[in-house]
Amino acid sequence: MIRPPSFAYRRIVSSAVRHPERELFCDAVPLAGLAEEYGTPLYVYSALAIRTRLSAFDAAFRGIRHTVCYSVKANSSLAILRLVARAGHGFDIVSGGELERVLWASPRSASRIVFSGVGKTRDEITRALRAGILLFNVESASELRVLAETAERFNRQARVAIRVNPDLPAKTHPYISTGLRHHKFGVPIPDAERLYAEAARHPALRVAGVSVHIGSQISDVRSFAAAIERVASFVVRLRRAGHSIHYVDGGGGLAIPYNGSRPDFRRQFSAYARAVSRPLRGLGVHLLLEPGRAIVGPAGVLLTRVLYRKTNGGRRFLIVDAAMNDLIRPTLYGAQHEIVPVRLTHAGAARGEKTDVVGPICETGDFFARRIHLPGIPEGALLAILDTGAYGASLGSNLNSRLKPPEILVDGRSARRIRRRERAGDLIRLESL
Ligand code: LLP
Predict the structure, then answer these.
(1) Contacts of 276 (CB under 8 A, 6+ apart)
(2) Atom of ligand 1 nearest to the CA of 294
(3) How far is CA 187 from CA 164, 272, 285, in A?
(4) Which protein residue's CA is at the shortest distance from atom 9 of ligand 1?
(5) Quick one: which of 55, 95, 40, 88 has its CA closest to 72?
(6) Which residue, by CA, sits nearest to atom 24 of ligand 1?
(7) CA nearest 255: which of 268, 273, 266, 270?
(8) 362 catalytic, yes or no?
(9) pTM of the model
(10) Ligand 1 pocket: which of 73, 113, 256 to mutate (most atoms <8 Å of CB)?
(11) Other C-beta atoms within 10 Å of 216: how many?
(12) Which domains does the chain have, with CATH numbers?
């Protein structure tokens, strides 16, 4: 169970235990020590893993002019945004809140922000115009009109790409597939042509690109190639009609493995890069990419402690101190995150058992795994829920008035708390009696 580059077991030498033990580390830092210091549940991220994946992703596209715009929604922690900015990359945002986060973490990144989303409000558009973002990915005729009006009122010019809906299926969970005709996203290509003509006529708008995003957790790169092929031929048509198309925004969506298999991510990134770049060959466009999960997903774990063991109707449960408010992916998308013990003892490894790993929330949907095989885990033991760096903390809530967990960023030998544990006072801070 070696998890390159950052989460791996290491043998620990201790005179207190008779059996050799192995413990899960994040880079040079033992996770058990972090759980001791900061309590559980606890999110831990590896800065090294994020940097490594970012540079590998970037390097995969070395054959084409491009900018990586990290998708903030995957993990919007300020410290991670700053790390991404310092590595020289841009950002993909979908709300005013995400814009503020990026500006807070890295004010100079404004000119590397692309703004997608079907429901941008006038206020959000105004703030983004004032900040001077790189590109608005417009998703409807009405939004285009609002953008034009707002830009005119504030005497700005907005760079515009129309997000097209390529009407292509993508093999993924239906909640995160976005490229079919009946989805709310983007504009069908035949209608988009009209919007480009409209945008070109408006002095406050500048036509700059075409964007597409077909969904998330997509592992078959042929789906991306198919979408980009449609975009590429559309770019040719738009140019013939006199539009200047400088950017193609290929969106995000590349999958990560959740099942414990460890294919070489560099090769996966290269295959993805080939699929996306090839249809654009000869067009001379600047490619924008919006990866989220592929950058931060494998770079994080959620640590949780077993509170109780119980058996009901013959079914074994490990009740842990994390819950669906901390990580909703298993119940919302049926995601199967690998769960491993932080400490592997010889004795424990021998006795395996089928068990459910569940949280304390009052819903049967509050589970992390059902009927998985784990070594005998005693009460008080620590578990790590893997590959939770993306859409873990960023989808967290206060369901059941639970306090959100702290987040730790490990960088080599050092560990830094980048968000403190919520306190009861945080829960009621905005309320009045
Ligand atoms: N660009 C746009 C316009 C998007 O809507 C998204 C994701 C991305 C980029 C980044 O996609 P990624 O590279 O991370 O797949 N909460 C779900 C995922 C929702 C994705 C929404 N949009 C989950 O936990 O699986």
Answers:
(1) 61, 221, 224, 225, 228, 250, 287, 289
(2) 13
(3) 5, 24, 21
(4) 252
(5) 95
(6) 391
(7) 268
(8) yes
(9) 0.96
(10) 73
(11) 26
(12) 7-46+298-428 (2.40.37.10), 116-291 (3.20.20.10)
Nearest Cα to Cα of residue 329 among 169, 118, 176, 119: 176
Mind listing the pLDDT tens digit of every residue in the chain (433 residues)?
344 569 999 998 766 656 668 999 999 999 999 999 999 999 999 999 999 999 999 999 999 999 999 999 999 999 999 999 999 999 999 999 999 999 999 999 999 999 999 999 999 999 999 999 999 999 999 999 999 999 999 999 999 999 999 888 888 888 888 888 888 889 999 999 999 999 999 999 999 999 999 999 999 999 999 999 999 999 999 999 999 999 999 999 999 999 878 889 999 999 999 999 999 999 999 999 999 999 999 999 999 999 999 999 999 999 999 999 999 999 999 999 999 999 998 655 556 889 999 999 999 999 999 999 999 999 999 999 999 999 999 999 999 999 999 999 999 899 999 999 999 999 999 999 9
Which atom of ligand 1 is nearest to 335's Cα?
25
* Helix (H) / strand (E) containing 38: helix 31-38
Atom of ligand 1 nearest to the CA of 395: 16
Report how far apart, in Å, the C-alpha atoms of 269 and of each of 54, 85, 92, 172, 283 are. 10, 20, 19, 18, 22
Report the chain's C-alpha Rg in angstroms: 23
> How is residue 250 written in tokens?
């290929």
Please identify which of the residues 350, 362, 424, 433 carries the catalytic annotation. 362
Give, using CA atoms, the residue closest to atom 22 of ligand 1.
216
**Residue 61 main-chain phi, psi, to 5 deg:** -100, 20
Atom nearest to 211 CA in ligand 1: 3
Question: What residues does ligand 1 touch, defined as CB less than 6 Å away?
Answer: 71, 73-74, 92, 116, 176, 213, 216-217, 251-254, 290-294, 329, 333, 390-391, 395
